[in-house]
Amino acid sequence: MRIVVTQHPALENGPVEIEAAPAEIADIEQHALDVVTFDIHAPGEAPKTVVMDVETFNKLATDDPMDVVLRAAKKSYAKPARAKSTGEPKVNYSSMEHAGKPHKGKTTDAEKQIVHDHLDAINERLQSEGLRTIDLQDPEHVARYGLEDLAEAGEGAES
Questions:
Q1: Disordered: where is this region (predicted)?
Q2: I need a surface site. Which of 42, 44, 82, 139 has the fewest CB within 10 A?
């Protein structure tokens, strides 16, 4: 199985891929933590990313429960990057909003991971947008998105 490590203190140049046998990660989810990731933006300083357990984060809300605070909060969006040649916003295909959409160019490891981990949800979005879905029986789709393990298992096969 392919594992993409996106954050680790030893990572120096971004995400890396490692291989693991299914038996090595069979019970990995029982060790997973419920965490929240957020950025602190202080004037004159670079944003600082913080990861903490959800229970501790939820205790930071004093007047209302954190779920109420989050629902009432304004949406925060990063400014989209501009494509150099056309002036159009650059599409981030490694986001749930755009992953799996047909596009020219290289499919990044980040997009492959999103598609792999959320194939059914992405296919539902693609279908609702009137776009082609990702078919696990199509060798080109399987290769483009690194879905060999799903194709062999016959999971999430929608077309």
A1: 77-109
A2: 44
Chain-centre distance of CA 54, in angstroms? 19
3 state SS of 136: coil
Residue 103 CA neighbour count, 13 Å, CB half: 16
Please check whether residues 115 and 137 belong to one and the same domain.
yes
Note whether 54 and 107 are same-domain residues.
no
Note the pLDDT tens digit of each residue in 124-139: 999 999 999 999 999 9
Q: Which amino acid is at 141?
A: H
Q: How many residues make up the chain in this entry?
A: 159
Provide the domain count of the chain: 2
Question: What's the rounded Cα separation, in Å, for the pair 73 and 50?
Answer: 19
pTM, to two decimals: 0.45
* Amino acid letter, residue 66: M
The SS3 call for residue 64 is coil
Q: Which domain holds residue 140?
A: 79-159
Give the DSSP letter of residue 95.
S
- Retrieve residue 100's tokens: 């799996």
Question: Which of 45, 72, 99 corresponds to the end of one domain?
Answer: 72
52 CB neighbour count, 10 Å cutoff: 14
Other CB atoms within a 10 A radius of the CB of residue 1 amount to 11
Last residue of a domain, one of 50, 72, 94: 72
